[in-house]
Each structure stands twice: as structure tokens, then as C-alpha cells.
Amino acid sequence: MQHWLLKTEPDVFSYADLVRLGSSAWDGVRNYQARNHLRQMQLGDLCLIYHSSTNPPGVAGIAKVVETAHPDPSQFDPDSPYHDPKSTLEQPRWVQVRLEPVRALVFLELSVLRAEPELEAMLILRKGNRLSVTPVEKKHFERILELGKEQKLSA
DNA sequence: GCCAACGTTGGC
DNA sequence: GCCAACGTTGGC
User: Fold this and answer.
1) How far: A123 CA to B5 C1' (Å)?
2) Tell me: the pLDDT tens digits for A120-132?
3) Rounded Cα–Cα distance for residues A43 and A53 (Å)
């Protein structure tokens, strides 16, 4: 099993939205490297759902892959912001996976992740990293789970 | 195949 | 809103 980190802008789609829907396609990925990562995902792989372009950014929860990569319908839809005129039904360029929520974490702010020496090598923390789908090492994933489990002492 | 120009991402 | 970093585009 592999682990991943998926970025999303919570104003567009948040971890809470995934919980509310019970399951959702992860669509709209329009970067080749990110798409290749989507293609590698297997059933049951676990994903950190990361909220970007928000204050503060951070990891909100865990989701699992319940359907592997298949063509993303939004690429064929002229009315979709994700429409790709160069994509054809015969040769689709972009894929999506389907996710289900596993559990929410105590929201782990980016600044907290940066402060963790054990997470220093994580891709998401690297300067200039813009990839929306990245693999996560098992040890990093587990460390984040631990951090996200910790309850605050006062309300 | 190079690379300048442009668009996008995303933290701050 | 700024701007650094990165990806994509397109002329040559």
C-alpha cells in the first residue's frame, strides 16, 4: 500500500465536503506528473487531504482510494473550468480516482509540520513545490497520524 | 530542441 | 495583493 498527499482549496472542496458526501471523485487534476501519481494509486491507498490557499493551510484528514484511475469526465465538458479541448473520448488525457473519508485529524497547520524535524524531507514542505498529488513516505504518513491524534488540552 | 514569455500556484 | 517558483506554450 502506498500513501499520498492531495491538495485542495477548501473554498472549492474541503475535507468536510468529502465527509458530507460520503464519497467523491477527485477530479480536475491537470498536471502530467500529478496525473501519473493518480494512475499509480491502488484500492485502499491512504491519502492526506491538505488544504491550500487558505489561512492557515494544513492537513485536515485522511481519505482512502475506493476506485482507481479512470477518465475524468470534466475534461470533455465545455462548460467545466477543467475542460480540455485537446482531450478526446478515444484518447483521454486526464484521470480521476474516487475517495472516501477515513477520519478527520486535529487540523495540522503547515507551520506545525514545518516545525517537525522528522518531516523535514517531506515533498510538500519543500520550497517551490506545487504538485497537487505527491507520494508520502510511510514514516511521514505515520508521524502525521500521530500528530493529528493528539487532543488539545484545553478547549 | 532551446528558451523567453506567459500563466498558475500558493505561502505570506 | 505580492511575488517566487514552477509548468506550459510557441516562435525560431
Assistant:
1) 28
2) 888 777 877 889 9
3) 29
